Amino acid sequence: MNNNANNGAADRDARLEQELNALRNRYESLKERKVRTEQDIANLSRQLEELEQRALAEYGTADPRELQALLESKRQENERVVAEYRNHVQEVQQALAEVEQGFGGK
After folding, report:
1. For the segment 87-102, what is each residue's pLDDT rounded down to a tens digit?
2. Total Cβ atoms within 10 A of residue 90
3. HEC readout, the chain
4. What confidence tens digit (pLDDT) does each residue in 52-84 have?
5. Going by C-beta distance under 8 Å and a sequence separation of 6 or more, which residues neighbour residue 59?
6. What are phi and psi of 76, to 5 degrees?
7. pLDDT, mean over the chain
8. Every domain of the chain and the residues it spans
9. Are 80 and 88 in contact (CB under 8 A)?
């Protein structure tokens, strides 16, 4: 019986040691993940700061809502300019057709 008790205790010790090693490995993995995450946060924070400075220099603001409004304004302006150009091209095309018709009709 004493031998069985020793074997049982040894098995328990082995299981505990195995679990402890697994926990150590898990802890080290989490520790490395934490370091990578902190580095990612630092890099992203630096990139955000650079982009905010660039937006401020180029557009006078770094506020996302103001930038969105500015973008919408620029889109509307582009739509207006394209519509004007479309009308101009159509007028040129129509004038050319009239000239060609007049030339061919004589």
Report:
1. 999 999 999 999 999 8
2. 10
3. CHHHHHHHHHHHHHHHHHHHHHHHHHHHHHHHHHHHHHHHHHHHHHHHHHHHHHHHHHHCCCCHHHHHHHHHHHHHHHHHHHHHHHHHHHHHHHHHHHHHHHHHHC
4. 999 999 999 999 999 999 999 999 999 999 999
5. 67, 70
6. -65, -40
7. 94
8. 1-62, 63-106
9. no
Please report where in the chains the tokens 């180029």 appear, as a residue: 58
Q: How many CA atoms lie within 13 A of 77 on its CB side?
A: 6
Q: Is the pLDDT of residue 5 over 90?
A: no
Considering only CA atoms, give the Rg of the chain: 37
70: burial class by Cβ within 10 Å (0-12, 13-18, 19+)? middle
Q: pTM for this one?
A: 0.60
Q: Dihedral sign for Cα 98, 99, 104, 106, please.
A: positive
Closest CA to 68 of 80, 81, 55: 55
The pLDDT of residue 91: 98
